[in-house]
Amino acid sequence: MKLTPLFVGALTLALAGTASAQTITIATVNNGDMIRMQGLSDRFTEETGIELNWVVLEENTLRQNVTTDIATNGGQYDVMTIGTYEVPIWARQEWLVPLDALGDDPEYDVDDLLPPIRDGLSVDGTLYAAPFYGESSFIMYRTDLMESAGLEMPEAPTWDFIAEAARAMTDRDNDINGICLRGKAGWGENMAFLTAMSNSFGARWFDENWQPQFDQPEWKETLDFYISLMNDAGPSGASSNGFNENLTLFQQGKCGMWIDATVAASFVTNPDDSTVADQVGFALAPDNGLGKRANWLWAWSLAIPTGSQQHEAAAQFINWATSKAYLELVAAEEGWANVPPGTRTSLYENPEYQDAAPFAQMTLDSINAADPNNPTVDPVPYVGVQFVAIPEFQGIGTNVGQLFSAVLAGQMSVDDALAQAQAATLRDMTRAGYVK
Amino acid sequence: MATRQTRALARTMMAPAVIVLLIWMAVPLAMTLWFSFQNYSLINPMMTGFAGWANYTYVIGDPSFTQALVNTLLLVGGVLVITIVGGTFIALLLDQPVWGQGILRILVISPFFVMPPVAALIWKNGFMHPGYGMLGHLARWLGLPPVDWFAQYPLFSIIIIVAWQWLPFATLILLTALQSLSEEQREAAEMDGANAANRFRYIILPHLARAITIVILIQTIFLLGIFAEIRVTTGGGPGYASTNIAYLVFRTGILSNDIGAGSAGGVVAVIIANIVAIFLMRAVGRNLDA
Amino acid sequence: MARNVSTQSRIGFTIGAWLVALLIFAPILWTALTAFKTEAEAIASPPTFLPRTFTLDNFEAVQDRSDYIKHAINSIIVSVGSTLIGLAIAIPAAWSMAFAPSKRTKDILMWMLSTKMMPAVGVLIPIYLIFRDLRLLDTVHGLTVIMTLINLPIIVWMLYTYFKEIPVDILEAARMDGAELWNEIVYVLVPMAVPGIASTLLLNVILAWNEAFWTITLTSGRAGTLTAFISSFSSPQGLFLAKLSAASLLAIAPILLLGWFSQRQLVRGLTFGAVK
């Protein structure tokens, strides 16, 4: 094999880059704000001399890779991008490094973090992840279509109004759908929306004895409402639409309303990407008069796995990426409307941001309205608005999401889906030891 | 012919390959077997200890298990039928004296060079998307409502994508076999006044039997484990409509982080693969004998 | 092919063959065209065939986000490296199976093939744990080892089928002349087997290049191959079809070109013993 030396040489060459400077590996999601962070991260390297090795993955792949790595203590990553679902669970298992250093840094000003977000990322008062951007969900709607339908959107609408408006705005001949909602299966996709929606219908995942509640009328009401609304006023192919697909539809002017993450507000009002940028209005997520609204709470956050060998450099990076200075950097480079929202009180007090982001107050109100510790009308044994903060939820939520997505695709009836969801969830909860 | 010395030599030369593969098979398989009898969840360190058969009953009791089994066979069978029938047809066409043979062949084999995630992504977004996919545009142009492929025909859509990737492989093997059919045989048949259908039935098809066997054997090995295409397009849904055994194992072991049950699923999948292999060897093995 | 075919039917066959070939090639062609359109044009309805405004922005955006060259180099090292190592192990094995077959040869061959039927997802965690302990996670050589093992059965099988076609008499004759075993291999066997080895090499480079499970799960930043590269472009935010097409085109271009230029070698040997 004459080629062997050549091969070894190439291999050495490929590995040589890692030896010289200090390099940390960052795993993140391929969302717009993270891509922007990646683009601006040269500044961090200039300031500190720490090289960054980016792993940008699609959300599901990222989640699988970081979970496998942290659970087996693989040590592949120094900084991980995770959400409010993972942080409390992983922190309790001592898989994450506490971020005490952030609290000691006056410039970082940890008290400036929005309280609901900070709570969601802390366990027993200790912060385990720093929020990169935070979000709730609300209604984005087309002011022009609403007007031509002869309706006026209240600031805090009910589901009945939404249904009426959606049907009135639908114009299938011109490819305008009254409402776009998530339908793609996944605990972070359609189940995030449907769980939040079910809260406003008085439904819950489990009763206080961890008994699944899909056999209760509230869930049937939720799902019937959702399916009939989507059949009458939703886009074709809705069962494969997630956040990104609906964003595209809305930007193309094909949705009258869209209930989704508050971070989308800056994308749909950005004239570079959106054809309807100056015709977008915002309203709180709908309710049914039961005291809970259909809005969720989420924060994509940066955390350090205990398996990392470079805690200090990693903490330095997290400090940089979630600092006030980073927000100012983005504002200087790309304008205030594009800074990662939903993490800091000071941002919402900044007049420049308020001017640039007409949705700022509505976003803040939505975030503050979400209560992860008390998410449902009836009492529940779990924490989390659009998820249940137990390790098993990823699997269970995705399973149920598959079934509900099948209803939307017309492959299954609401009753069958609920019965199967009940059976499957009971099976998994029994296996995990919650249900005796 | 083989002396004792050459036989010993032969064994020595075979040893590295055999040993390497033995380790590759035995170590992970043994670990998988071990895990399959353990309570082992990646995200729940509380779950420990001997599980007995619990993981196996859990996996086999999965509501989607039977459907996943059927889907696996449909997926393998569907792709085999499409690639062999289509491959034979294209091979016959390319075997004719047509203009531009070289370019034609390049065009036809190209899908084989496309990695599975890319194939799935371009079919999903560029072709099968009801809004901006090519097939959607085509439907609208014909005045038909666009088909939402992955919602309405999920398994069929995946079969199409996978068949597209493997069609070149089948075509090439069949074409090579076809071209080895001697001119005399063809001419003799033509002299006998056999028409095209009969020539195909009695001369060409028997000649292709061995090639078809090979195509079935090699493709089945790859098709049993189809995973990336499902992951990228339907995620096994809607419902369980496009979940195959490999995806079920993935959902249990990786998405739900239940290594115990996932390993049990892996062992079940190995058993199923071996059953298929035995059938395959029985059915096609005769054709392979030297 | 010196068959007498009327011009008329030749035209008919030509049209038919071109239609079929273009149909098969359409997804790749469409992707290539879309890669040069603007995002808005990419999803326009009715669609445009050729890009109205020809743009390279998508490629720039893709390169900005993901280091294409690094991923491509990793792909090349892993696919070529694993194939060369595989050949080094497989050639002697296939040689002995073909020229000194025993009763068990066929069983061993079938057993080797059956190791390929093990579903990758079922053994992910064991492999991940082993890789962690051997410090092989996210390394190019770790990935090369896995790829070698995965494709070894196919390499052995392919080589075996070629070697079997080499007439034994020639080897006997060489042996009569007092040729050493080594010389026998180098001067007699290798020249006869080169087309087969070349074709095996090509096929396995392609298979390793396109492998998309281990390459994604066992790598993070440093050793990521082009399959990991493409994974960061699936379902991102906003309009993405044109960027996705550009990334797809970049990911498949090297192997597509290799395949096109070497298709004669690939095709000549790609029989798996289908032709006797």
For this structure, the CATH topology of the largest domain in chain A is D-Maltodextrin-Binding Protein, domain 2
Q: What is the name of the CATH topology of the domain at 65-173 and 214-288 in chain B?
A: MetI-like fold
Number of strands of chain A: 10
Which parts of chain B are unreliable, with pLDDT below 50 for 5 consecutive residues or more? Answer: none
The number of helical segments of chain A is: 20
**What oligomeric arrangement do these chains adopt?**
heterotrimer
CATH architecture of the domain at 65-173 and 214-288 in chain B: Orthogonal Bundle
Corresponding CATH superfamily of the domain at 65-173 and 214-288 in chain B: MetI-like
Radius of gyration of chain A: 22 Å
Q: Can you give the helix content of chain A as a percent range?
A: 40-55%
Our Rg estimate of chain B from Cα atoms comes to: 24 Å
The CATH level-2 architecture of the largest domain in chain A is identified as: 3-Layer(aba) Sandwich
The fraction of residues in strands of chain A falls at 5-15%
How many β strands of chain B by DSSP? 0
CATH first level of the largest domain in chain A: Alpha Beta
Number of domain modules of chain A = 2
The whole-number mean of residue pLDDT values of chain B reads 85
How would you state the average pLDDT of chain A, rounded? 89
Largest sheet, strands/sense/barrel of chain A: 8 strands, mixed
Write the layout of secondary structure elements.
The complex is a heterotrimer of chains A (436), B (290) and C (276).
Chain A: H1 3-16, E1 23-29, H2 32-40, H3 42-48, E2 51-57, H4 59-71, E3 79-82, H5 86-92, H6 100-104, H7 115-120, E4 122-123, E5 126-127, E6 130-142, H8 143-148, H9 159-169, E7 177-180, H10 190-200, H11 217-233, H12 243-251, E8 255-261, H13 264-268, E9 280-284, E10 297-303, H14 311-321, H15 324-334, H16 345-349, H17 351-356, H18 360-369, H19 393-408, H20 414-431
Parallel strand pairs in A: 1-2, 1-3, 7-8
Antiparallel strand pairs in A: 3-10, 4-5, 6-8, 6-9, 6-10
Helix pairs in contact in A: 19-20
Chain B: H1 4-36, H2 54-60, H3 65-95, H4 101-109, H5 116-127, H6 134-141, H7 149-152, H8 154-179, H9 183-191, H10 196-223, H11 228-233, H12 245-255, H13 259-288
Helix pairs in contact in B: 1-13, 2-13, 3-8, 3-10, 3-12, 5-8, 8-10, 10-13, 12-13
Chain C: H1 7-34, H2 39-42, H3 57-65, H4 68-99, H5 105-115, H6 124-133, H7 140-165, H8 168-176, H9 181-210, H10 214-217, H11 226-231, H12 241-261, H13 263-269
